Amino acid sequence: MTFLSVLIALLIERVFSAQRPQRRHGWFSAYCSGMSGIGFVQWLMTRPWGVVLAILPPLLLILWLQLLAASLGSLVALLFGTLVLIYSLGPGELGEEAEGFIEARDRGDNDHAQAIAQGFCLSAVPNSEPRRSFAVARAVVVLAARRLIGPIFWFLLFGPVGAAAYRAVHLMAEHLQTRECPNEMKRYSDELRHVADWAPARIAAAGYAVAGNFDAVAHSWRTFDYVASNGPLTEAEHLLAQTGLAALDTFPHDADDLESDEHADVLYSTLIPPVVEDALALVWRTLTLWVGIIGGGTLIAWLA
Predict the structure, then answer these.
(1) For position 25, what pLDDT does the model report?
(2) Which of 84, 101, 187, 220 could form a Cys-Cys staple with 116, CB 3.0–4.6 A?
(3) Residues 136-153: tens digit of each pLDDT
(4) What residues make up the domain containing 165?
(5) What are the C-alpha distances in Å from 287 to residues 36, 48, 135, 150?
(6) What percentage of the chain reaches a pLDDT higher than 90?
């Protein structure tokens, strides 16, 4: 049933997008604001694992519903698990957003392309090509783990409550990073997000190695050296960006070389490398690889 839930959720996410429900997490943001505004809860969240206790009530409800669905039969458990997984993905659909950027960029709608890139990327976006396309490609290989592989990984381990917990950890950390609150709350919530992302990031990077340039990814991974700064932990983001771009044989200096070409304006459409398209293709190949492995493992377990 777990594999079927993953398969159905991905089909709805990618193929039957019209049937995909709108993922609105406003209620959880309101919950985070309410909880972080309570004196005792705020004190609790300045302690290690206090954030876990803060998000525990809605997760306990989901766990209870998960057990109830399991007791009502396989079909109910399948439907409940699929709905929770779909709601835990995203929030936006990776392919739609990246393809929207490509379409706007290729038709010369610079303002629209810039707006999409700004909402899509995790950091400041250059306003000129091909740097902007490289930034979007980097975001694609990073967000694939956050939006797809991370929820699926924790869903496979713990069922619906695992996928919901992963999304709740991210939403809480993102909420606290943008609010005025004690630094300990931000730090511990971000460390919890780092824990939740550690395994999915490496699973995604391994998939990039198999689906892309294996030797380049292996070298990039071996030489990966993350130095934490005073801001949010971004170890998973840097690892995914480094291995994902290595899998594509795409490196930032390529953008510098291209942008400095004196004929760049004349040959605009032919000079910009299809890095965003290649990044999307890499993500879909990686996802197909892992879904196939999950399916094969499920079949072996069923036969055994």
Answers:
(1) 80
(2) 101
(3) 999 999 999 999 999 999
(4) 2-303
(5) 36, 34, 21, 11
(6) 47
